[in-house]
Amino acid sequence: MPRTKTPTRDAYVCSECGWTTAKWVGRCGECQQWGTVVEQGARSGSLQRPIQPIVPGHQAVPISEVRGEAAHRTVTGVGELDRVLGGGLVPGAVVLLAGEPGVGKSTLLLEVAAAWAQRGRRTLYVTGEESTAQVRMRAERTGGLSDELFLAAENDLATVLGHVEHVGPSLLVVDSVQTMQTDAADGAAGGVTQVREVTSALVRVAKLRHLAVIIVGHVTKDGSIAGPRTLEHLVDVVLSFEGDRHSGFRMVRATKNRFGAADEVGCFEMRENGIVEVPDPSGLFTSTSGGEQSVPGTCITVTVEGRRPLLAEIQSLVAQSPLQIPRRTNHGVDSSRVAMLTAVLERRAAQPLGSKDVYVSTVGGARVVDPAADLAIAMAIASATRDIALPPAMMAVGEIGLAGELRRVPGASRRVAEAIRLGFRTVLVPAGSEDELGHLPGTVRVLGVGSVRAGLELFGLVGGR
Asked: Do 265 and 347 sit in the same domain of this protein?
């Protein structure tokens, strides 16, 4: 009888996350990706030959003797991006900028490259998706022409490295890593093997030449960065470029930063002449901004993105539903959170919402996920239900529990200070938060309440019709 060959242990590995298995499967058992499990050959549990030590070219030195000047940051000239990076680009750093198609990644990086070059620093912009003429056309529209900005339309990695040797830039922009390919790896451009090899080569060049590199990456349908998961581990900084293509607001968010905080955000606005920084973005998300007029169904809150407080306006409309099952429609807020708040309002605050259509939206395309916006959402819904406008120049922050209680939120002092700076004079906060606010101007009225019902009763939003 012929002997059956025993499968080699851990002979297959997932190129996405490194998960191993003894037999081939179509879907990875760890990251659940399809088509990423490939054969890696037999691997023994011990080394076939001992590794021989090699004399290093540079001896290890005490950390106190290492010169830190080589890692000093250099500002890019785009203040909002510098904020996210922690103050600028570090020489030798590799930055991955990912975002959906059409969100403006190429436009942003062209302006970064132009701002870098206009300060007398040589820049190389490599595009694998456009021609140099197309890039110049966009640069003319955004005012990004500079003699120190060099363009190259290439897809071959070896040719790109040749351009780096010839130009000698201090900043390299690669748009995008999925279009680059190298003969040193198998597969088509954009594949897992090609993307990993191209990124590894760019990282080696960046460290060797102390060259700052920014790489554009595509995202998948679920919003994650396309390519192997190890791509995010290879680079130093991972930035996510977010925004609704139907809105001009854009946000750069750091999800990984070896040289600074990973919770900072930068704000931009897409206009006809390119992307413009928005150092004070609160006005984009409000229609009142502390004004003297107020309408039913409107309430202002302050969210925190990273460490930056942002004003957001919550609007609600409540109407009698002609349907057996009333509508619950939301835009810019979490639908499950609004459903919970609607139930709490009906059960704990005597709001008649069982037969009403409830619509909740934000102004300016803002995306509000901060639980501190719970109180503002509840106030807006109750205001629309009773058709009673809240006082002008009023804001509310607080998280609501299922029992209707209000919970204190982090950063209350920063939130209130931002609202006061923009002209708001009435502040509704959870009870106990008043001590965190410190000394406030005498014209500011702080109202601390322990429950959502108590907050509604202050403005006559409980009882009546």
From this structure: no
Tell me if 413 is assigned to a ligand binding site. no
Is 35 flagged in the annotation as binding? Answer: no
Give me the CATH number covering residue 265. 3.40.50.300
Indicate whether 340 and 427 sit together in one domain: yes
| pTM of the entire predicted model | 0.77
Domain count, the chain: 3
Domain stop point among 237, 264, 279: 279
Task: Please check if 75 is assigned to a binding site.
Answer: no
Domain of residue 348, residue span:
284-458
Interior CA angle at 285 toward 282 and 289, to 5°?
65
The response to whether 177 counts as a known ligand-binding position is no
Q: Is 464 annotated as ligand-binding?
A: no
Q: What is the mean pLDDT of each run of 10 residues along the chain (465 residues)?
A: 49 79 87 81 51 82 81 90 93 93 91 95 95 94 92 96 96 94 85 88 94 90 66 91 81 91 87 86 64 80 88 94 94 94 96 95 87 97 95 94 96 91 92 86 91 96 70
247, 360: one domain: no
Crossing angle of the two packed helices 374-386 and 335-348, in degrees rounded to 10: 60
CA-nearest of 321, 390, 326, 378 to 348 is 378
**Cα-Cα end-to-end distance for the chain:** 88
Environment class of residue 292 by beta-carbon count within 10 Å: exposed (0-12), middle (13-18) or buried (19+)? exposed
Residue 416 is part of a domain; what is its CATH number?
A: 3.30.230.10
Q: How many distinct helices (H) and strands (E) make up the chain? A: 10, 21
Q: Is 100 annotated as a binding residue?
A: yes
